[in-house]
Automatic annotation (TrEMBL):
Species of origin: Prunus dulcis
Taxonomic path: Eukaryota, Viridiplantae, Streptophyta, Embryophyta, Tracheophyta
PROSITE patterns: RPW8
Protein name: Homolog of RPW8 1
Database matches in InterPro entries: Powdery_mildew-R_dom
RPW8 domain segment(s): 63-213
Amino acid sequence: MHCIVTGMTVPAMYVKYQDKIEWGEEKLKAQLKRYYDMVDEKVVKKIQNKLVTVREEKEKKVLTTEKILIDATIGRALEALLGAVSQARERAHMYESILAQLEFTIQTITPKISEIDHLSEEDFPDDVIYRTRLQLIQGRELVNKCSNAGCCNLWKSQMYYKKLQELEDSLRRLITIDLQVKVALDVIRISTEMKELSILLLSNTNGLLTNIAAIENSNKSRRGILQALSNIFNIDQLPFLQVFDT
């Protein structure tokens, strides 16, 4: 008979000390220490190596997901998800109805949602783009699991079906993002048109001011010449100067 103490299997005679008065806490610790010393070091190292491997795999998976999020665009993520759904429909026939519905939803939202890729961080919230990418990547992983699950037990089938429904519902909610994209694109278009108009007006205004300045300089030069001639020949220059004052 054995029982579990601090995560290890220990003979019951070492822990059922309440029935024997002579067994105190120190004796129990000594007995437990002897038992731990008997554990094969190879077993301990094997367990430690396994724990390290599991941790490394988790860290690697996190890094891979982060790299995908950095490299992927909304359009590519949607394309990958649609491809995974199409393949799953050929293999996982038990999810045919929900996969067909999911495929239709993706095809419906793709044209507008993919336009997010053309927006910068200033034009559209970066956290929305990040969450959308993450949702699409996780959706693809879910579809791949369903595709490779085969004929699993009833509980897993129901669980996958429910998750696929949740994915389809969440993709439908992306329509609200579609409206935000339209607003952002309209703002960008109006802003671009206003900039082009202001540049055009500024260039025309500068040209007009340049022409006015040239005319004024020309008039000043002519006035100067007439003034000099009138001084030389003692001619009344007033009639001539009035021509340039008009």
